Amino acid sequence: MAAAEVAPSPEPSGLEPEAPSSADEPSDDDEDEPSPSSQREPEPIVDPGHLLVAIGRETLVYERPSFKSQKIGYLRAGAQVRRDEKPAGFEGCKLGFYRVMPEGYVCVGPTATLDPAHPVAQFSRVRPDRSAPMPYLYARSLYPTPPFYTRLPSKLEQQQQEVELARHLEANTRYAWRSAESDPTPPFLLSGGQAPTPFGYAHEANKLTSGRAVPDSSFALLAIYDHQGRRFGLTTDMSLLPLDRMKPVVASTFHGLSLTAGVNLPVVFVRAKNAFLYAGSPSSGLSIARPIGFREALPITGRSRVLSGLTYLETTAGDWLRDENLVRVDKMAQRPGWVKPGRTWIHVSILKQSMVAYEGDTPVYVTLVSTGADGLGDPKTTHSTVRGQFLIHTKHVTATMDSDEVGDAFDLRDVPYVQYFSEGFAFHAAYWHDTFGTPHSHGCVNLSPSDSRWLFHWTDPPVPQAWHGAMSLRGGTLVYVSP
Length: 483
Known about the structure:
This protein has helices at about 1-5, 120-125, 155-160, 165-170, 185-190, 450-460, and strands at about 50-55, 60, 70-75, 80, 95-100, 105, 110-115, 135-140, 145-150, 210, 215-225, 230-235, 240, 245-250, 255-260, 265-270, 275-280, 285-290, 295-305, 310-315, 320, 325-330, 345-350, 355-360, 360-370, 390, 395-405, 410-420, 425-430, 445, 470, 480. The chain is mainly beta.
C-alpha cells in the first residue's frame, strides 16, 4: 500500500487539500561505474554576514515568527539562506525567529544556527543538484549489506564488524567505484572523530556502527573518502558506508515529450522493441526510414490507412508507423468544469499508464508512468493508486520511502522529487526500475527521474531553491487520477 511505501518526513499536519467551495473545484543490477561528472561540487560558503544555516534533519520554516503559525516548508542540514540581521520575535524560541529568504521565519536553536562553521554545516556542504534528474550520487546495497559506520573504522574494527571481510575483498570488490572521484578526507575524520549528526537523526555517541542496511536499500552520497585501501561514502544522514558493498545507481534515461508550438496531442508511445518508421505513402508504397526506439513518443495527425491488412498511422512529420503495440494519448475530449485558464493540472490514466500535464485547456507535457501494481484494485487493501481529484499539497526535493512489511522490506533513501497529493500517495522519481508504462508501484505514481524533475519544477507549490520542501493548504496543482 502507498502508506507502507512512503514515509515522508516531516509528515505535514493538517495539510490535506481543503474541500472546494464550489462543485466546479475538485476535493482534496548492472555494475556500471558513475562518471566523474556525477560527483557533486560542494556549495561554496557564502558571506556569513546575515546567514542562517540548517543543522537539523528538517529545519522548519513558519509563515510567521511563531511555532503556532502555519508550516510552509523546511530546510535540510547544510542549507544556507539569507536572513534579517536581527530576530523578528522570540515566541517559544529562546534565540529568536529570523526572517529568511525568500519568505518565512526560522527559529535558531537545535535545528538552525547563525554559525556557518558549524560541523554539520561543513559536512553537509554538498547540496542536491535540482538541475539534474538525480539530485545526488546514489548507491544501492549489495549482499552482504554494508554496516552504518559513524566514523572511519580501523582495519581491526572493519574485521570485527564484517566477519567475512577478507573473502569479500578477495573478490575484487576493492576496485568498485574506481572511476568515481574521491573527496579530501576531513582532518576530523582522519583523527578518528565521529561524523557530526544533524539534529533529528538517532546516532549514538561513541558507538562505531548504528546498524546495518537492509537488503533492498539505497542511499544518496555527499562525499567519497579513501581510507586504508577501501572507499567509504558519506550519506545524507552522516553514516559512512563501505562502497565495495554497494553498486552505483544507473537510472532510467526514459523521458516524455514536451508539447511545444507545433507539437500536440495525440501522441503515441511505441511499446514494441522492433518497430520502424516508414517514409512514403500507403497508397504509393512505403519504405523503412529508421528504427523506432522502445517507448519513443511520436505525435500523430489522427489519419490512418490500411495496407495489406495492416493499419498505419500518420505522424505529424508525414511518416507512418504500424498501429501495433502503441499507447495512444489523446487530449481529454471534454474539459473538466474545474479547469480554469492558466491553472495547472495533471491527468493520470491508470489503464494507459500515462500522464498529461495541462495549463488550462492546453496540454504541455506527456509521458508514461507506473502506477500501483494492482491496477484498479482497492487502494486501501491492495497496491493500487487512489483515484479521484486532489491537490498537490507537500513537495520534497528528496524523501525516504521504506517498509518493514515481511517479505517486502525496503529502505530507499532520498527518493527524488516527491509530491504528495493524497495521504501517502505521491508523484516521485523511481531509480530502482525502468518499467515506466507498466504498473509497478505500491500505490504512488512512479516517473522516470527526468520526467519527475520536470514535473517537480512545473507544479505548485514552488519550492525555493535553497529549501528542501514546501507545503501549501491550497493553491497546489490539481491532480485527476482516472481509470
